[in-house]
């Protein structure tokens, strides 16, 4: 009951208190009704089947779903909330109203059990591009470029790029999971993996831009960042999943690394400085999509989904820069050795 009430609070601004009360009442009544009948306006939930004595049929909801889908926690109540929100949004649209956010999130149309199908598909595509980029980097560095007599790469940042690749793929994997179904666990995993990736790319930016090569300086540079990121992740997971604070932390780390790369590319005249600049400017521009935040078009494509689309070419460009850098460093090292 408390949940239904809580859920029904629609974020449409403080001044619309009358509408606020009306909307919460509408949704609450709708959810209560749906939990009794299992249907909203002709659409019925497969999770709300009742026998004649009013008890759910086939045991509790978690016994009705195959085991591998249970983490999604689709039950009668969450289905009812979804159908009631859809019904309300349709009603609003007919009256010429604009979409509103529920619990700070836009309402999406589900497809095949996926909550935000477009973002899931694009996250998977990002994952594929990260994998492709990382594999092609790996092949270049270990099979195409010359190795030292002890079978190590001449390029000093190989390990950093490898970890970056793994963290990126991990982050896109959890992004796809989170967009398939947004529950507390998937949200924490998505959030934590994204923060870990951002923190590590900051370390990569600092070490590459300042040419930090010996072990002691590397440890000295990375430790504060790792300590900060770990504390932040623990805070989010164990204490308070504070969105506002998390956005500030992510933007600060993101802007810091974009600035480092941009300034470094300008100063050093790296042979692939143009790729770096396009990636940096592109990265900055696509951040605007996250800030602009428009509602999902036809219930499917919102600004966040578009943001996931734009990161695909940037990923390709970024790995292309990593490969250029590896070739550049290896050849200049070999020239010096001659
Ligand atoms: Zn996302």
Automatic annotation (TrEMBL):
Pfam family, one: Per1
Name of the protein described by the UniProt record: Post-GPI attachment to proteins factor 3
Transmembrane feature ranges: 120-142, 154-174, 194-212, 219-237, 243-264, 304-322
InterPro entries: Per1-like
Domain of life: Eukaryota
Keywords associated with the record: Golgi apparatus, GPI-anchor biosynthesis, Membrane, Transmembrane, Transmembrane helix
Gene Ontology biological process terms from the UniProt entry: GPI anchor biosynthetic process
Family as reported in the entry's similarity comment: Belongs to the PGAP3 family.
Gene Ontology terms, MF aspect: hydrolase activity, acting on ester bonds
CC terms in the record's Gene Ontology section: endoplasmic reticulum membrane; Golgi membrane
Topology term for the membrane: Multi-pass membrane protein
Its job: Involved in the lipid remodeling steps of GPI-anchor maturation.
Localization per record: Golgi apparatus membrane
